[in-house]
Amino acid sequence: MLNILFNSAPVPDSASGWQGRISAAFLAAVPNPFIATLTQPLRPTLPSESASVAGFPIDLSADAPTVARALIGCTVLVDGIGGRIVETEAYDRDDPASHTFGGPSGRNAAMFGPPGHAYIYRSYGLHWCFNIVCREDGHGAGVLIRALEPTEGIETMRARRGMTNDRLLCAGPGRLTQALAISQDHYGLSVFAPPFALIAPSGPVDVIAGPRIGISKAIDLPWRFGERGSPYVSKPFKPATLIEPAA
Q1: Residues 144-160 pLDDT 10s
Q2: Three-state secondary structure along the chain?
């Protein structure tokens, strides 16, 4: 886990904003594809050029709850292995439960980068968690992918998880990353380029919402989203509200 703070050795003068305050130690620790993003000045993320918009119908520069709801029913793959997203949680910099609430750091730098990239962290020192960054570059928001319905590479996922109960293969953020072999090596990578693939739903999805799980702050925000009736969610939604019936 990266715990190197900003405000030590700056990157070249061409960088600006939060990019200009990243420590040299952090740059040495982050995977190379993301270093290129951090050490070069980024253009504003405009709808016409954003990877989240080019050929993809969901605007990942929207607010976190909107994106978290919209990702339900999408398919996410890593090296061709994965499934349909059936459960998500939204996190924003103004949310005290979010990693970005206290501002930028070495650990959360990817969440302050452009939308459509992976923010990976280790939870309780035990397992990795996979988030998709949203909002505009520099804002600090993301969506935790909590559960998938396995559809591709199920035998590989069974082997990685050491089980044959398909319902539990990806039912929870730690199970999901183990099944898809997601680790810190994926930190900062685009979810629209290999090894990732993000595919929009083929049709409308009934989505329910409720309070998030496993947090001690902002516990009443209904920022957990799931596919109505899916047996693949990590835990039942109690209470749950149907927020957008499928057409």
Answers
A1: 999 999 999 999 999 99
A2: CCCCCCCCCCCCCCCCHHHHHCCHHHHHHCCHHHHHHHCCCCCCCCCCCCCCCCCCCCCCCCCHHHHHHHCCCCEEEECCEEEEEEEEEEEECCCCCCCCCCCCCCCCHHHHCCCCEEEEEEECCCEEEEEEEECCCCCCEEEEEEEEEEEECHHHHHHHHCCCCHHHCCECHHHHHHHHCCCHHHCCCECCCCCEEEECCCCCCCEEEECCCCCCCCCCCCCEEEECCCCCCCCCCCCCEEEECCC
